[in-house]
Amino acid sequence: MKFNEALKEIKIYEAGKPIELVVREFGIKAENVVKLASNENPKGCSSKVAKVIANNAHKAFLYPDDSMYELKAALASKFSVQSDNIIIGAGSDQVLEFISRALLTPNDAVLMSQVTFAMYEIYAKQMGAKIIRTASYEHKVDEFLEAYNEHKPKIIYLCTPNNPTGDATSKVDVLKIIDTIDKETLVVVDGAYMEYAAAKDEAYSITPSDLVAYPNVIYLGTFSKAYGLGGMRVGYGVANRELISELYKMRPPFNITTLSLAAAIEATKDEEFVEDSIALFTKEIVRYEMFAREKDFDYIESYTNFITYLFNDKINSTEIADALLKEGVIIRNLASYGMNAVRITIGTKEQNDRLFEVMRKVL
Ligand SMILES: *Cc1c(COP(=O)(O)O)cnc(C)c1O
């Protein structure tokens, strides 16, 4: 059987290792496994949201409201845009997929930073498009504009804050890129961790309302990170209504579940939960920075809910990640991104205590 040629170029996405794997392979009890690998919220989700999911369990037989009226209205009001500026996806991942399928052909190129969210490449390659990367892992405006002029990409991905490095691009820099390029190129501003960046520094806070006036820009957000709903799979895109109506042509009906929809609606009503999550993070990340200084390796200043440790020659990221795994602590090795680095989600105080304890042992 002959598959689409484009598939030859695709490496399967390597997701963060699940707790179940550590239980199976190393015989560690699930409650003793510390998972700091997928940037999930260590506080879990809002208890109000958990209650709504439980209370709606009996509605599992019903398809969800396919208009997603209430969720779009809540997001529209939160971001000061209109409901027809919004499309909902099964995670913002699905919106990325809609974008890729709506725009790309094998004649197109896409532009992204050297080290960034792996799904941009995978969705683009599914369409046979060519991948262009800047030289630096940080989003450097000059590098983006130079590559833009040379390759005239159909899509530019700006991941801010960036996963898996944790650094961010200022609003001024993002707007500089948007204002320089012509309107034939779509700019995707992926704000999966924007809640953290906005809390840290106003200059890095980008909201959909900054962008909807542009015909060629889309903002992506998700309930998976700060809202603690990774398992519910709800994300969104916010853009000019013409762009959104084109993306709607790619959307399957009922693309999120009845329970996910109810959960996301409730989550928009509990911003206090997000604030508490960010407060925990802000307190705990200081310990990670101190730990790096103590052990004499570098880290990237984080605008997200994780920290990226940049190891020196004396430490090998693969060895560290494997050794931690055997102790039941899951982190993300960035060797596959060409970096001698690991990405660690900032956990609860107890999870972080355990991480430092095991790290001290294996280092
Ligand atoms: C987690 C993440 C997403 C999407 O997550 P979903 O769970 O699909 O909403 C998108 N972009 C980046 C950079 C992410 O880290």
TrEMBL record:
Q: According to its UniProt record, in which pathway does this protein act? A: Amino-acid biosynthesis; L-histidine biosynthesis; L-histidine from 5-phospho-alpha-D-ribose 1-diphosphate: step 7/9
Modified positions (N6-(pyridoxal phosphate)lysine) are: 225
Q: Which reaction does it catalyse?
A: L-histidinol phosphate + 2-oxoglutarate = 3-(imidazol-4-yl)-2-oxopropyl phosphate + L-glutamate
Which Pfam families does the UniProt entry name for this protein?
Aminotran_1_2
Its EC number(s): 2.6.1.9
Which controlled-vocabulary keywords does the entry list?
Amino-acid biosynthesis, Aminotransferase, Histidine biosynthesis, Pyridoxal phosphate, Transferase
Obligatory cofactor(s):
pyridoxal 5'-phosphate
The record's listing under InterPro entries reads:
Aminotrans_II_pyridoxalP_BS (IPR001917), Aminotransferase_I/II_large (IPR004839), HisP_aminotrans (IPR005861), HistidinolP_aminotransfase (IPR050106), PyrdxlP-dep_Trfase (IPR015424), PyrdxlP-dep_Trfase_major (IPR015421), PyrdxlP-dep_Trfase_small (IPR015422)
Supply one GO molecular-function term.
pyridoxal phosphate binding
Top-level taxon in the UniProt lineage: Bacteria
- Aminotransferase class I/classII large domain: residues covered: 32-357
Provide one Gene Ontology biological process annotation: L-histidine biosynthetic process
Under PROSITE patterns, the record lists: AA_TRANSFER_CLASS_2
Family, similarity comment:
Belongs to the class-II pyridoxal-phosphate-dependent aminotransferase family. Histidinol-phosphate aminotransferase subfamily.
User: What interactions and quaternary structure are annotated?
Assistant: Homodimer.
Q: What is this protein called?
A: Histidinol-phosphate aminotransferase
What gene name does this entry carry?
hisC
